Amino acid sequence: MINNIASNFLHALRGRSANVFRSQAICRNLSSCVKIILLSDANMRTAAVLSLLAAADLIAASPLQWLWLSNKRQVESQMNDVDILRYALTLEHLEDKFYREGLANFTKADFRAAGYDNSFYKNVKAISAHETAHVEFLTAGLEAAGVKPVAECKYAFGIDSVDAFVATASVLEGVGTSAYLGAAKQISNKAYLTAAGSILTVEARHSAYLRANLPQSPFAQSQDNPLTPDEVHTMASGFIVSCPKGNPTFPIKAFPGLTVTTTGKIRAGDQITLVTNRYVLAAGAKGAKLHAVFVTANGPVHAQMKAKKDGMTFTVTIPERVHGQSYLLLSNCDEAATSVPDETVVAGPTYLEIK
């Protein structure tokens, strides 16, 4: 189940229409370029089209109203401390609503029927209270600084069972930990950094507790994986339906999405299948090449990848150096790269759990 819920993070529109909707060359560095060709069919709803176009940089629209200042992806350095705290509050709103809604939908008896004891239910309620406290803490901090905080958005989590709720909660806590970790380097104010760090450590405890009860290893690796704001938004935006018009904008946007279609337990050495969300990836320049890359604390870990002729399906072999909650993306960076900047990311990341 844990790998199947990755689709909740992405708008997985996988039709195979032959109609080309529009194409755009996305050059991520001086030596390579990848073309994204969007597909459409007569049954595609307008909302789905807009979501897909937004993911591929073709229209300036985003559920979070995160600002697109130009056709080029914004670099991380353009986010200031206020942007980072608002970004953190946006994520905390999502988590807070997720737990409140889940606990409203599932009773203690529902948790017991799913195999979880009363102490687990009590602790999930405590986690929910923590997320509410995080929202209040960040809101108060922004208001004290004379800054307008972001308001809660409208979400669609698609949770229909206690098991799905717990599995999704675990992923959200892991993504939250990686989000704070990845944003830490951008915070210049030490007081803000300490405040963010005080939340990061609690998110990590939530993640470990939930993982241990799935059951999964509560600490599958010696270091957590940092994610950039764009990478986090790519996964989290699938839950967001709309946000208040008055919410401030951010210099962040989502990458085109990827979905892992392989089900069941995944281990190092296994081969998995990735599919794009209704777009074709094709070489837009001679010699252009895509690479499958796992995000880790010690830099990118490349994986063997083969692309099928349709340009939408890829097989990837899981390398030995990744375990636990992992994030896989497609990039122009080759094996010699020591980092994967946002401007080199072509698609993803997508989430998968590796034993």
From TrEMBL:
Domain of life per record: Eukaryota
Name this polypeptide is given: Ferritin-like domain-containing protein
CDD domains on file: Ferritin_like
Gene3D superfamilies: 1.20.1260.10
Organism expressing this protein natively: Saxophila tyrrhenica
